[in-house]
Fold this sequence. Notes:
Radius of gyration: 27 Å
Shape: elongated
Helix content: 25-40%
Mean pLDDT: 89
Strand order of the largest sheet: 3-4-5-2-6-7-1-8
Distance between the termini: 50 Å
Amino acid sequence: MIKLRPYQQEIARAILNSVWESRGLTFSVEIARQGGKNELSAILEVTLLTLYIQRGGSIIKASPTFKPQTVISMERLKNRLDDYGYNGIWRSQMGYIVSLGAARAVFLSAEESSAVVGHTADILLEIDESQDISKDKYTKEFRPMGSSTNVTTVHYGTTWDDSTLLEEIKQTNLELEKKDHIRRHFRYDWQEIAKCNPDYGRYVEAERDRLGENHPLFLTQYALQPIQGGGRLLSNTQRALLQGEHARRAQPEQGKAYVAGIDLAGESEGAEDAALRFLKPRRDSTVVTIAELVYSHESRANSQGDSRLPIIKVVEYYSWIGKKHQESYEAMLHILKEIWHCRRIVVDATGIGEPVASFLRQSLGSRVIPFKFTQQSKSGLGFELLAAINAGRLKMYARDGSPEYQEFWFEMEKAKAQYRPNQTMNFFVDSSEGHDDFLMSLALVVEAANQYKPRSARGNPGAPIM
C-alpha cells in the first residue's frame, strides 16, 4: 500500500470533502517535479471509485496528450486498483475508461484536435498538467462537463509563466480565499517535499547546482516560480560568470581535449568587406567555436550520475562571411582535424547546412554530430547553455581586443529569450540589432562538450583518457 505524505493528505482531504459535500470547489495544486502529484491523483481516483462503486458516476481526467500522458495515468490507476485488492474486479473499456462497479474513470486527451464533447463529470473533474492545456479548450469543452452536477474540479501542474491556464486558476483561487477563507490553492515547492523526503532534497540541491537557481527549469519545476515574460537571455551576473581569465589560443596544448560548435551561414548572404564584418547591421556568417574541456576529480556528476561535467573554456573563434559552404569546407576540415584534433564537433545541419554536416561526417567520422534546429531541439540547446553558464562551467577567453571578442560580447548582451506556453524557450538576437552566429555556435559547443564522454584512467578517477 502507498501511504500519502502529509502534504498529499492535506490536499486529498480538501478535495474529498468538496466531492462528498457537493460543494463544487475548484482547486489548483502545484507540487514540485517528482513530488508525488500523480500518485496523489491515482489514490484519489481509487478512493472515489470505491465510494461510488454502487451509486455510480464518472471521474473525468484530462491530460495535454493521449500518448504518453493519458496512457500513463490509466496504467497508474490500474496498478493502484490492483494494489488495493481490486485485481480481477475493475474493467477496462474502449481503451480510455476504467470501471469499478457502477463507477468509472474516463481518461481524455486535451489536444486541440481531440473530440471530447458529450462526456459528463459527476464525481470529479481532473485537469492534469494544467499549464500545458489551452484555455479555450478547457473553457469550451471540459469545464461544461461538470456544470449540471456542480462537480469538484482539480487543476494539477507546475508553474511556467503568468499566461497559462494553471496560473489563471491559481490567481482566481487566491482571490476567493481572501474573501471566504476556504483554501483552494495548494503549493508545495521542493523544500516542502524535502522535509518529508531528505533524499529528494539532496537530488534537487544537485540539480540546483547543475542548472543554477535562476535557470528557467529550476525556477518553474522545483521552486514553482513563474517566469515573468521574456527579456534578455543573460543577466549581468550571468555574463560575469561567462567571462574567463584564460588566454585565447591559436594552437592546442598537448594532452588537452577540444570540441567544436559550428553555426553555418545561409548561402544567400553576399560578400562583404572584411573590415566591416563586425559592424551592425551585418550579414550572416559561419562561426566555428573551439573549446577546451577541463576535467577534474572534483567535477560534479550530472543528474544521472554517469558522467563528469567538464569546465568548457572557449579558446578560439573562426568566422567566414560571404563565402559559399563549399569554399569554407576545406578550411573547416583543416581546422578541426589538423589543428585542433577535435573530439566532438556539433554542426548546424538545418536546411542547406545538411550537406556540410554530411561532408564533415564522411571525413571525420562519428565525432561529427549533426544538429537540426527545431522548436524543441533549440529549446533544449538554450536550457543547456544556461545551465553551463549558471554553474560556472562555461568560460570565454580573456579580453584580447579582437573583433571576434567584441562581437561575442555584443551578442551576449543583445541576446533575448522568449518562453513559450509549452514549456520551451527560444533565444536569439533580434534581426534589427544584428545576428546571433556567435551565440548559436557557443550553444553548439556546449552540446559538443555534453556529447563527449572520456574514459577515466585506472587508479585516477580525475584523469580522462583521450
